[in-house]
Amino acid sequence: MAHNKLIGTVDAQGTGRLPTHLAIIMDGNRRWAKARHLPAAAGHRAGAKAVQRTVEACADRGIRYLTLYAFSSENWGRPRDEVGELMNLMRHYLRNELERLHENGVRVRMIGERERFDPDILDMIARAEERTRGNLRLDLVVALNYGARAELARAARQLAQRAAAGLIDVAAINEDALASALHTSGLPDPDLLIRTGGERRISNFLLWQMAYTEFLFLDVGWPDFGEKDLELALADYARRERRYGVDAR
């Protein structure tokens, strides 16, 4: 496994509160494959196994919400073969992991613009959401064809249309109203964001929702992310003091 560098000193013995909502930018699949002289598809397949490990580990630890940035709206610009492989991986995961997720009490949700996906993928997503709707152990929120700026623009249009139709007063459009028009309506904001792969940016992910999220950037590539990395991240989070803009000193 690649050496994991964290900001500050971290050990695996951290105790304290867990994040209610953990968000992850799963980065580094292609670099992982390139370092091993493998095609990008091999990195994405290895990354899918990391998804399975992480979902199970989060459920076991009592994390209530897990949001994974699986496919951004910008990812359509990647090579056609790579996009096709990602679509096939999505089909494989939805087809073969659904019952395992259901048996483990995981509820599956998708956020993002669905219209661009093929009909069979849309059917699989709808079936997964319906099959797991009553599960309460862990909400697995998968961001697909998602971009935060597009999400905010969509929410603004929706509120503007309602105001133009006389359904709401313009003066009533506040932070709560905008949040209710987002894909994540009804979900708590993320407490902790983990990004793997060595990059230090959030790449148009949950811009509104992460106003007070704690960030942790890891050098490990997503395919190598495992329980030890999760434990280190949770230990680091437990030691942080969250003030939400209020100086508690």
Automatic annotation (TrEMBL):
The keyword Metal-binding applies. Mg(2+) binds at D27, E214. It is an enzyme of class 2 (transferase). GO terms for molecular function: ditrans,polycis-undecaprenyl-diphosphate synthase [(2E,6E)-farnesyl-diphosphate specific] activity; magnesium ion binding. It holds the Pfam family Prenyltransf. InterPro entries: UPP_synth-like, UPP_synth-like_CS, UPP_synth-like_sf. GO terms for cellular component: cytosol. CDD domains: Cis_IPPS (cd00475). Belongs to the UPP synthase family. Catalyzes the condensation of isopentenyl diphosphate (IPP) with allylic pyrophosphates generating different type of terpenoids. Homodimer. This is Isoprenyl transferase. It comes from Arboricoccus pini.
